[in-house]
Amino acid sequence: MPYTMDSKLGDLLKDPRTVAILDKHVPGASKHPQIAIGRSFQLKTIVNLPPAAAIGFTREKVEAILAECNQLPPAA
Q1: Calpha distance 48→16 (Å, rounded)
Q2: Is there a contact between 22 and 29 (Cβ–Cβ < 8 Å)?
Q3: CA 22 to chain centre
Q4: CA-based max dimension of the chain
Q5: What is the rounded CA–CA span in Å between residue 70 and residue 64?
Q6: 3-class secondary structure, 5
Q7: CA dist 47 → 26, 68, 76 (Å)
Q8: How many CB atoms lie within 10 A of CB 69?
Q9: Residue 8 class from Cβ within 10 Å (0-12 exposed, 13-18 middle, 19+ buried)?
């Protein structure tokens, strides 16, 4: 199932490969102090939150993250 803006941040955080992609586009995002709060939020919700924008978690970055994650082969 492809990742979309409807996916939850927690979905991306379950796979080390997607965590690496997330951190590549938004350095330190997976270790941010408020990451636990955002795990249950859909990505489309997070991109509208000012604290997310402050660390560079913008719609454009998330779209790039999703595109790259969706190119990964299925997890074994």
Answers
A1: 25
A2: yes
A3: 5
A4: 36
A5: 10
A6: coil
A7: 12, 18, 30
A8: 20
A9: middle
